[in-house]
Amino acid sequence: MGRADRPKGLLKTGDPSKKIIPLTQDLNYYFQKGNYYHRKNKLSKALLFLNRAIEIEPLNAKSHYHLACLLSQSSRLREANRVFKHLVNNLDPELTECYYLMAINYGLMDNMDKARHYLQKYLRLSPEGAMAEEARDLLLVMEESDEEDYIAVFTSQDNEALEKWLSSMERESLSDNFMDETFNSLLQRALYQGNDRLKEKIIHLCGRSKSGAGAALLKDFVANPWIRERLRQLALLELKNNFPEVRVQLFSGGRLVEKDLVAYEPGAPVWQREWQEVLDCVYSTMCRSSYYREKYYEDARAIWFDFINEIYPKMPRIVKPETWAAGLEYCLARFHLLSVTQEQLANAYGVSTSSVGRRYKQIDNLLKIEQKAFRKMLALLAHHELDE
Predict the structure, then answer these.
(1) Superfamily (CATH H level) for 273-387
(2) How many other C-beta atoms can be found within 10 angstroms of the C-beta atom of residue 61?
(3) Which helix (H) or strand (E) holds 115?
(4) What is the per-residue DSSP string for 189-200?
(5) Phi/psi class of residue 94: alpha, beta or left (left: φ > 0; alpha: ψ in -120 to 50)?
(6) Which fold has domain 23-147?
(7) Which residues of 39-48 are buried (b: 16+ CB within 10 A; e: fewer)?
(8) E-assigned strands of 78-178?
(9) What is the pLDDT of residues 18-73, one digit of tens each?
């Protein structure tokens, strides 16, 4: 029996005079294939099939709606909102929930003015709509946030100082610290205003604390629709591992739903502790180098996430995080054309040079770091020639 996800293109028939019948690949075929790959979390393939469905029938509102939702899930938020706008302006003005979903996307892009505008527009057009209650809740949260007398987003010095302080805490003192309201307020603020590395640290800290206050911080965090999905999954993993009896509220399909953590499976790939250990290892080693600015940490994180997303669920077992961290940093160095050698990284991480090379090749085989570095070098040379 052939695989269901692999189109055959031909159907057999019992009539000997007509051995085969061509299989018509119409709008429904491409739409169903797009949904199939969406469920499998293979977003690039899903986008390919949905775009093909739209090419066949460009006025089909259903295909545009699913495309916009898929683009949102792929973090292509501006493209998603363009499709949502086209949908309500030109195809189906009755599909007012598009305004609500546009508001969510604008919030994720930190454009709270437009998020507020589209939430209000949705409620004006559909005061009893399916997502009206969630829209009102979000507007209320935004109003309360505007009233808070918080300091502006953390500076890089604030992030670094708080991260070092949290790293120095002993496990035994965590519960006591979480009983302090000032400490909890600081962590809550950092969860929304700090950089991603600090947020990851706080999420793990809340789990390690085994405290009701830590669980409450994580519950509030995962219920917020305007946080990065990767961080939400990380927080859900901490809740599931440390507070399995807790029920959480999540935005799913544009609405707030309650989930039982015992039965809930976070989205694939589920973030694993050993994956975080690799990031922690590379961060701490990069901190000791004069090469790296803040942007480089973000790029290291992006390379690691891309690798995991590409290879999942066949991720190799990580026995020694240092070898993967060294390979990851070498990927970063190659991509940015930095003068860092495998031997230098082997010494920095306390591993063999050959293991650095092996891990680098595993990542490069999937992400084509060398090709990207070569194209980047050609672009730099061309730019240099123009300047001369």
Answers:
(1) Cyclin-like (1.10.472.10)
(2) 16
(3) helix 112-125
(4) HHHHHS-HHHHH
(5) alpha
(6) 1.25.40
(7) eeeebeebbe
(8) none
(9) 444 344 455 566 667 766 665 555 666 677 777 777 777 788 888 888 888 878 77
